[in-house]
Design a protein that fits this description.
It contains nine helices and five strands; from the N terminus they run βββααααααβαααβ. The protein is mostly helical. It folds into two domains: 90 residues, no CATH class; 159 residues, no CATH class. A hairpin with a 4-residue loop joins β2 and β3. α3 crosses α5 and α4 packs antiparallel against α5. It starts with 6 loop residues before the first strand and ends in an 8-residue tail after the last strand.
Amino acid sequence: MSQHPSGWYDDPSNPDLLRYWDGVSWTNHTAPRKSPTASQSTIGLPQGQQGQASADRTGATAPVPQGSGWQTRSQLPQQGQQGYYQTPAQAQWMHNIRTTADGVPLAPWGKRFAAWLIDGIILAIASYLLLRLFVPDYFASFQRLIDAASANDQAAINSMITDLAGEAVKAGLVTWLFATLYCIAFWTTTAQTPGKMALGISVRRTDVQGPLDLVTALRRRLLSALQLVPFVSGAYFIVFLLDGLWPLWDDKRQALHDKVARTQVVEGKQPRKQP
């Protein structure tokens, strides 16, 4: 868990703004940076006289406005308190947080992987039921191959392998179509599959917030279609592995399919499309 208190900090994507950090991630709440007026400024005064100078002007002890950047150490909020406070180390830490071009924090790889596992379980169960319904011979071919192997019937084994290959093509097409419909339905409506909902992340275009349009959603599934291409599907596992691991070293935390579609996975939900 983050050791940095919630409060207003320099916006990593815009030096003219402050952005609210909720203790876990950046929020969408921003405010313009404000400096004290000349009459309020305590620049040049010894630290011990700064609070007194404010009291002399107002008749009461008044803290320097939060967010101004002019507070003394004693007036800054401490750990667990709300307010604008940055040590040099904190400022550097905040600027190291990766965000989209408009300042939305990117989802870490761990959250993306956990969301993928949840969606994978859902898709696996649903795909099994669909294959039982639409490609029943796929499982029957497996059983016949096992029986032929048990009987050491080489001719039957060769025949079963040919049959199984044909059924595998049908099964692959059914499962890919279902996964594509599953993803596109969620990406274009809420921008969150059930896995992403559970982890509090969403997918968006790199240049604009909101759910994906249909063309972008289809582009995001193009890379997975390689598994259906003859003579390429056998090497798809390597592409699949690289695609999943790519955000670990990519400066924009994009997987390969994100680069194809020009999308990014970010923290939080996406604003709904206007009707």
